[in-house]
Amino acid sequence: MQVKIPLPCIAPIFQNVFVIYPLDNVPEILSENEFIGVRIEDRSFLHQKKWHKWMHKWVILQSVSFRNEAEYQLHKILRAVEKNLILSRLEPNMYGRKNQYFISPKALINFFLAYPQIIANTYKLAEQCNFDFDFKTPKNKKFYTNSKYSDRLLLENLAWKAWRCVMASIIKRQKNA
């Protein structure tokens, strides 16, 4: 059984990491390495006085989950399957936003022309970022445990455990019927 632990609303203290909070989840106090991500659809909220004190922390937030409309539709179908619902019964909070696709930097900047501070903050933040990854060395583990044999034993044990749970629930339902 998989235990689902919710993500904390406020990020832990990191070193060498920038944290970008979406506008709907901004803590009361921001550290030096924390910023407020502004989505295209959030721009109208920036006129509210409560956000003005954070202008130096605003950056563009454009999540990318899909390459195109077909992948977005596939995502919705897979979410419906996962939730065991027909597509029309999915609630909007059960799947990603439709606008989570790649937008060219030029087009993205055009959305924020009325907010030059956001554009400048975003560039400044991006210039401080780097990512080092060794693409030559394989990262996949050969074994989950310490050998192929022990992996097989683990899978077999987990399968039997799941089977016992399923059988127990079937027996329980039959007794209650």
What is the terminal separation in angstroms?
26 Å
Query: What's the story with the biggest beta sheet?
Result: 3 strands, parallel
Indicate the mean pLDDT: 91
Q: Tell me the radius of gyration.
A: 23 Å
Low-confidence stretches: none
Question: What level of helicity do the residues show?
Answer: 25-40%
Question: Your description of this structure?
Answer:
- The chain is mainly alpha-helical and 177 residues long.
- 38% of the residues lie in helices and 7% in strands.
- The protein contains five helices and three strands, in the order ββαβαααα.
- Strands 1-2-3 form a three-stranded parallel beta sheet.
- The two termini are 26 Å apart.
- The relative contact order is 0.09.
- The model has no long low-confidence stretch (mean pLDDT 91).
Task: Write a short abstract of this structure.
With 177 residues, the chain is mainly α. The chain is built from five helices and three strands.
Annotation keywords:
38% helix, 5 helices, mainly alpha, extended
Write the layout of secondary structure elements.
Layout: E1 19-22, E2 34-38, H1 49-52, E3 58-60, H2 69-83, H3 105-111, H4 116-127, H5 148-176
Parallel strand pairs: 1-2, 2-3
